[in-house]
Amino acid sequence: MNKTIFRSVLLACCIVMVFSLAVTLFFLNSYFINVEFENLRAQAELTARAIDEVGLSYFDTYDSSVYRITWVDSDGSVIYDTAADESTMENHLDRSEIVTALTAGHGQARRLSDTLSLETLYSAVRISDGSVVRLSVTQASVLRITLGMIPYMLIVLALALVLCMFISKRISARVINPLNNLDLDNPLENDTYEELSPLLVRIDNQNRQIAGQIDTIRTRQKEFDAITNNMREGMIILNSSDLVVSMNTSAMKLFGGSSSNIGRNILTLERSPQFTKAMEEVKQKGRSEYFFERNGFVNRLIANQIQDDNSHVLGTCILIVDETEKVLSEGMRKEFSANVSHELKTPLHSILASSELLMNNLVKEADKMQFISRIHNEAEHLVTLIEDIIRLSQLDETKEFPREEVSFQEVAGSVVEALEQNARERSVTIEKDVDNLRISGVQRLVYEIIYNLCDNAIRYNREGGHVRISVHRNADTVELKVADDGIGIPSEHLARIFERFYRVDTSHSRSTGGTGLGLSIVKHAAMVLGGQVEVDSREGLGTTFTVSFPADLLC
Ligand code: ADP
Questions:
Q1: Which of 395, 497, 524, 539 is the pocket-test mutation for ligand 1 (most atoms within 8 Å of CB)?
Q2: How far apart are CA 486 and CA 543, in angstroms?
Q3: Phi, psi (deg, nearest 5) at residue 505
Q4: What pLDDT score does 205 carry?
Q5: Can you give 113-152 as a three-state secondary structure string?
Q6: Is 519 in the pocket of ligand 1 (CB under 6 A)?
Q7: How far is the CA of 488 from the centre of ligand 1 (A)?
Q8: I want to staple 234 with a disulfide (CB 3.0 to 4.6 A). Which of 244, 250, 413, 500 is the partner?
Q9: How many Cα atoms are found within 13 Å in the side-chain-facing hemisphere of 446?
Q10: Does ligand 1 lie within 6 Å of residue 516's CB atom?
């Protein structure tokens, strides 16, 4: 800017300077020519008067070193010339000054020599006999004078140029320095020349507008970050050049990235062939989707191209959804269906086989009761199994159970009542140490929890064993414990006993009427009520199941 102003001022100075010089030269020349013509005319008139009086004898004493005199007759022939032989001179009627003098009494003219370096001024005066006396003087032409002045002019120009440069520098500094020192953050506080005021007011207005817009953008960015960073799904937004514009916390965790990946190409974050292929596919088809496994989780990646209303590509949005639960439950569902078919087939085959033998009279009379009782037991087992399956599917399907006030003492009492006979048959004693506590729960589910745990404690017990049901309140929880001193569970099985149809000893379970679903029902029911189950067992010594409910549920 400084340079531009300096150059502009310098150029303007130079143009003005050269123009002034040319105009001055022109007017000076015109002025001096006029002066010269006036002198020449005065001299011509004096000379004409003398010649008019004395005739040719005037030339006898005339010194022709200054002016040349030509006496021309009215027909244009030269009567006398101080510089040439008149007999050799041509007719002068074609000379403009002569023609004008003949008609008007005086004429003047100015003519350049062939080389343009000299010019001759003519002044002609008519005398009484009608002839014309002409005086002329030859001098250097304007061009010659100008050329002769060039060295001086150059010196003047050089001096003027230096002066111009100095002035230009001062002017540009005076204009630029206040601009360079402007405080653009507080434009109205600047003390500078008044021409800048409208500009400073506009900058101040724009500053306010920009600050407002930045605030809005920041607020929106914060809202966007708050939303995306609390999403369980990973989200990455790319611009049209595949540079990362935004990436939420879940996506960073999944791909091991950080905020330093923002602004860099997406392939610096993830380079797997599957991902690279998806990025190419999204460019060709506008969408790409695939499943991948990482850190034990199954994820679905969905990449969608973002376009504006005119179908111009703005970028890509990548969503990564955790599908582990879905995939696992799909697998579990398949496994459960296969197990159910198997569990149902076994008693049915036994029933079919026994009934066929009976129908074909292939069983001895003495053994018939045994076969009928087997059919009965298997049918009973089938009913229990189907009831357990129904209970589990109800737990799976029902999202919300209506809550009611549940008394542990009442539920534990009815369980003991229902299992007393079984316990007696196995010589197992049931003890109760249940506090009078009530929770907001589901009576049927609490019953199923205590029933299944007690039923197991009796079935996996030994002759003369004990089962103890206790319910007490702790600081934050209500703890329901069912402890036995039965056969216990080998430690390697502990992690899996809550799985559907998992049994430590299948034949023992089946022979005692187990379905392999009891603990799954307990775990699920406890979860629905907001509780959780833990097991502590020593092989040969006994087992304790603890179900903890949050104390908030207490009524
Ligand atoms: P089941 O109908 O076979 O009893 P459960 O789901 O109730 O099925 O229990 C799963 C397995 O856990 C049982 O087969 C058994 O081996 C073991 N188990 C459960 N409770 C006890 C217990 N109190 N003592 C020893 N083993 C137990």
A1: 497
A2: 7
A3: -135, 100
A4: 94
A5: CCCCCEEEEEEEEECCCCCEEEEEEEEECHHHHHHHHHHH
A6: yes
A7: 9
A8: 250
A9: 29
A10: yes
Domains 2-147 and 231-322 share a fold: yes
What DSSP designation does 90 have?
P
457 Cβ inside 6 Å of ligand 1:
yes
pLDDT at 494 over 70: yes
Residue nearest to atom 25 of ligand 1 (CA): 488
Q: For residue 312, which phi and psi values (nearest 5 degrees)?
A: -85, 135
Calpha distance 462→466 (Å, rounded): 9
Per the CB < 8 A criterion, the answer to whether 406 and 439 are in contact is yes
For residue 534, which amino acid is it? E
Contacts of 227 by beta carbon, 8 Å cutoff, 6+ apart: none
Assign domain 231-322 one CATH number from 3.30.450.20, 3.40.50.150, 3.40.640.10, 3.40.50.1100: 3.30.450.20
Q: What is the DSSP string of 458-526?
A: HHT--TT-EEEEEEEE-SSEEEEEEEE-SS---HHHHTTTTSTT--SSHHHHHHTT--S-HHHHHHHHH
- Helix 368-397 vs helix 324-359: crossing angle, to nearest 10: 160
Mean pLDDT of the chain: 91
365 Ramachandran zone, left/alpha/beta (phi>0; psi -120 to 50):
alpha
**CA–CA–CA angle 295, 296, 302 (5° rounding):** 80
pLDDT of residue 83: 86
Sketch the domain layout of the chain as residue ranges: 2-147, 231-322, 339-397, 398-553
pLDDT in tens, 32-72: 889 989 999 999 999 999 999 988 888 888 877 788 999 99
CATH of domain 339-397: 1.10.287
Q: How far is CA 222 from CA 218, 226, 249, in A?
A: 6, 6, 14
Q: Is the CATH code 3.30.470.10 the one for domain 398-553?
A: no
Q: Which atom of ligand 1 is nearest to the CA of 452?
A: 7
Q: What distance in angstroms lies between residue 445's CA and the mean position of ligand 1's atoms?
A: 18
What is the rounded distance in angstroms from the CA atom of residue 277 to the CA atom of residue 271? Answer: 10
CB distance 543 to ligand 1 below 6 Å: yes
How confident is the model at residue 2, as a pLDDT? Answer: 65
Tokens describing residue 156:
């003047």
Structural fold of domain 2-147 = Beta-Lactamase (3.30.450)
Which tens digit of pLDDT belongs to each residue from 374-395? 999 999 999 999 999 999 989 9
Residues composing the chain? 555
Query: For ligand 1, is residue 465 a contact (CB within 6 Å)?
Result: no
